[in-house]
Amino acid sequence: MSETIENLFQEERSFPPPEKLARSANAQPEIYESAAADPHAFWVEEAQKLSWKSPWKQVLDDSEAPIYRWFVGGKLNVTESCLDRHVETTPDRIAFHWEGEPGDSKSLTYAQLLAEVCRTSNALKELGVTKGDTVAIYMGMVPEIIVAMLACARIGAAHSVVFGGFSAESLRERIDDASCTAVITQDGSWRRGHVVELKKNVDDSLVGQQTVKHVLVLKRCENEVDWHQGRDHWWHDVVPQQSDQCDAEEMDAEDLLYILYTSGSTGKPKGIVHTCGGYMTGVSATFRYVFDIKDDDLYWCTADCGWVTGHSYIVYGPLANGATSLIYEGTPDHPEQDRWWKLIEKYSVTILYTAPTAIRTFMKWGEQLPVACDLSSLRLLGSVGEPINPEAWMWYHEYIGGKRCPIVDTWWQTETGCIMITPLPGVTTTRPGSACTPFPGIDAMVIDNEGNEVERGHGGLLVISSPWPSMLRGIYRDPERYKEVYWSQFDGLYFPGDGCKIDDDGYLWLLGRVDDVMLVSGHNISTTEVENALVDHEGVAEAAVVGRSDERTGQAIAAFVVLRADVVGHDDLIVELRKHVAKKIGPIAKPSSIVFTPDLPKTRSGKIMRRLLKDISEQRKLGDVTTLANADIVEAIRSGSSSGQDADE
Ligand code: 6R9
Ligand 1 center to residue 303 CA distance, Å? Predict the structure, then answer.
């Protein structure tokens, strides 16, 4: 019988934590043992670090599993943990330094942020938004997006942030699904020097829409907008004159905090539901220990608030810990490809949290850009969103981290709310490409298709075997789909849909989505391992592989390769790359075709869309491309691909 997923790629390099960081790290080695001995006590201790209005009566109610309730009966308002308590002790501490794409900037202290949140809360109340309503937020990365999220939380309205790059149709679908009563947006948002017309998209999305009564519009780009009298309100007309005091609505631990839609690879977007008490406990604890946050740190998470990473690790986690963060509005290549490195230099950023897709793009652009900037303030690096290829990890380590910064490769999902598998920077000896081990208090296993735990040294499916506080509470208005998608495969186990292998020391190596696994001559091969082997070649910056139907082998591996800036793609290189993969992970994994391309199709959150590459390889009509960040690349690949050679020997 074939393995659920083969274990092919071996990585021998390892990096112990720097001594100085280890000595004063927020998480010390004992944390694993004590959390394992009593996980509930661990989470209770973390929950107690938040501000509660009244205590819970029960830590976990699992009587209706897989619907779990945490901190049952507890009352709180998450904005008091994020703002009020810091304003009491350190009102002048900076919460956010913000830099706009055109170069304008602004800083907000905790006291200023609380005042602005209260004014916005009062404005929303005046418009009739109340506890139990859902508000859509469709904005760019301006400080007001954070203010808007927190203002909703303060008055007990759920927010549903829709990424500002999504179309009017996607916005409409999400507004309808959650029956939003208000939308908060901007006239426009800056992106690579151009204005993205957010207000226009909102107008288009609301044609014939019934539930939305009010649209609050922040002026940012001064582009012209249509105005719907009675429905539309300028932020500057309704917010500034409000009182800067607003009592925080008392919320049950299990009341809805937000809905966030995740599309997955196919099908209708799922409205992932997060509640107040457990979610805050999870994000606050993971932020403190994984990012080792200290008073003098300047933390920068490069995500957009439209993604869960922005919710958990720009807004709720950092603010719960009283952190000082940088946020940046624009793209990394505006005005030049060194914008990020200039920002790190300007603000003396100490902790950087970004995605493999960004790192691989910087590899493609070349290390001369970061090397020319002073990045010596950095002390810790993070990665999230996709498996990070070992070679990309090494590049990040060398050219961004100056070989001195630990890298935390953090595996988690919109659904999990907080980081689940990760190194702890002062404790874990890291291995490039491994997310290492479950966070304290989290139970994960790798199992085969029959549900048996695999032995070390083998691959299989990742599952989470006990509930955790920040877990999703369901799919909005679709409890059956929730059970079906996550809990129907293996009894009592949460199935995230990712492949994973466990090495001889118990380290976990994420292998991408199970749907993408390729079946070649009876071997189940993960896309991640073949991509790792390709990126291991010095000429390659990025690679994506898919299984294309093949009469002889079932599936054949089709590879799409992005080369580094100074490398030219030619036939000899194709031969060389195939040999390289064969040598690195075995002849079975050799791509049968390799196409060079300037970029890969990616979702707007930077994940490679292998589904489209599969359509191209099998010369099918392309599936849905509306969530694509770079739609034009698909045509370019398609024309390149028809001339791409099929090297079979
Ligand atoms: C936070 C976020 C979740 C999916 C997840 C997995 C992939 C995220 C990863 C990773 C390997 C990591 N993923 N982090 N794979 N290593 N460190 O990305 O949430 O947008 O819901 O995506 O992303 O496949 O299942 P979300």
Answer: 13
> Is 384's C-beta closer than 6 angstroms to any atom of ligand 1?
yes
pLDDT attached to residue 630? 78
| Dihedral sign, Cα of residue 585, residue 590, residue 591, residue 595 | positive
* Exposure of 501 in the CB half-sphere (CA atoms within 13 A): 23
Give me ligand 1 centre to Cα 525, in Å. Answer: 19
With a cut of 90, say whether residue 605 has pLDDT above it. Answer: no
- Domain 537-640: CATH superfamily, name plus number: ANL, C-terminal domain (3.30.300.30)
Task: Give strand ranges (E) for 18-172.
Answer: 58-64, 67-72, 75-76, 94-99, 105-109, 134-138, 158-161
pTM, rounded to two decimals: 0.97
Binding site membership of 385 for ligand 1 (Cβ less than 6 Å): yes
Residue position matching structure tokens 């009020």: 84
DSSP string, 96-110: EEEE-TTS-EEEEEH
Q: How much of the chain exceeds pLDDT 90, in percent?
A: 93
- Range of weakest confidence among 62-71, 532-541, 599-608: 599-608
Q: 296: CA distance to ligand 1 center in Å?
A: 29
Of all protein residues, the one whose alpha carbon is nearest to atom 8 of ligand 1 is 385
Which stretch of DSSP H or E encloses residue 149? helix 143-155
Our mutation pick for probing the ligand 1 site, out of 311, 386, 462, 627, counting the most ligand atoms within 8 A of Cβ, is: 386
Query: What is the rounded average pLDDT for all residues in the chain?
Result: 95
One-letter amino acid at 424 equals L
Query: Is the CB of 387 inside a 6 Å radius of any atom of ligand 1?
Result: yes
At 275, which helix (H) or strand (E)? strand 270-275
From the alpha carbon of 421, which atom of ligand 1 is closest?
17
The residues, ordered by sequence, that sit 6+ positions from 350 with a Cβ below 8 Å of its Cβ are 296, 297, 298, 299, 377, 378, 379, 380
What pLDDT is stored for residue 264 in this prediction?
Answer: 60
Q: Name the residue with the closest Cα to ligand 1, atom 6.
A: 386
Atom of ligand 1 at shortest range from CA of 415: 21
Range in 208-212, 293-297, 618-622 with the lowest mean pLDDT: 618-622
Q: Ligand 1, residue 435: give the atom nearest the CA.
A: 17
* Residue 160 phi, psi dihedral angles, 5° rounding: -130, 95
Q: Determine the Cα–Cα distance for residues 205 and 210; give it in Å rounded to an integer.
A: 11
Domain range annotation of the chain: 537-640
**Reading across the β-sheet that carries 444-447, which strands appear in turn?**
444-447, 458-464, 498-502, 508-513
CA of 550 to the centre of ligand 1 (A): 29
Rounded to an integer, the average pLDDT of 134-148 is 98
Q: What mean pLDDT comes out for the span 178-192?
A: 98
Beta bridge partners of 459: 5, 501
Confidence band of 2 (pLDDT split at 50, 70, 90): confident
Among 28-42, 132-146, 620-634, the minimum mean pLDDT is found in 620-634
Whether the pLDDT of residue 612 is over 60: the answer is: yes
Whether the CB of 526 sits within 6 Å of ligand 1: no
Establish whether residue 513 lines the binding site of ligand 1, counting it when its CB lies within 6 angstroms of any ligand atom: yes
pLDDT > 90? residue 444? yes
